[in-house]
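Side project, low priority. Logging it here so it doesn't get lost.
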Amino acid sequence: MPQIKLDADTIISRAQAAERSGFDSFWIMDHLFAPGAPPTDTLESWTLLSALAGATTSIRLGHLVGCSPFRHPALLAKMAATVDRLSGGRLDLGLGWGSVEDEFTRFGFPVGTRRERSEALGETLDILTLMFTGEPFDYDGTHFQLRGAYGLPVPAQKRIPIHIGGGGKQLTMPLVERHADWWNCVGSARTRLSELAPLRGDARISAQYAVGVIDTEARRDEVTATIGRRMPEKAWGRALIGTPDELVAMFSAERDLGVDMFIVRFHDLGTEATLGLFGKEVAAPLRATTH
């Protein structure tokens, strides 16, 4: 549920609707603006997560994905532990090394090379692990140096699940293999799933999908056109568009490819009606046949 052109009350009400509808998790983006769009309201992500933590009770919360270069790893660790405490242990920590270079230039962040940003993310993940123990430590890296640092309070969870998003063989997948509980395969990389999956180590696979829910056959063309406009195939991969029964078959086929978690972005940005219909007639039947 990217927080573009949506106010806080709307995002919160949709998170609550997703929780009521049986979704496992609720994800937002981590950008300072809406990439590729004219200037519009875009809420800061960690502040919004804190509000969502207080407004929900069971659904898991996170970013897909958090932009590591925006925050020093010690600050990021403190923020993550705080949100995990506020939510009662419901944070999933999604991270990437930042792919929208225009955003760094526009807002004055050092861009660096792609490899430098990837290396810095690896050090960030090392530091997060150390901070989450609550014990003092020193750290000597190329990008970060800490002396006598510690993170208290520690997270509510024994381990906050780490999700690393992307599809690059050289810069992303080695980080997934070393650090991640989940590899989040972006939509544009789903065609390479069989090629990339062996590189993930022990990480489970989640994948992102543009989804159009057809509630009446008369709206099929409208939903298809909306998907094409809002989530083009080049960025999101082939969209899954269909009636609830058709979508169950489509997601079953994706599950057979090894995907354990489906991250869905709906054609209508997830209205409560769509969340309810999908939860009842797609997610529930899929969950019932999980093996």
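Brief comment: The domain at 1-160 is CATH 3.20.20.30 (TIM Barrel).
Revisit when time allows.
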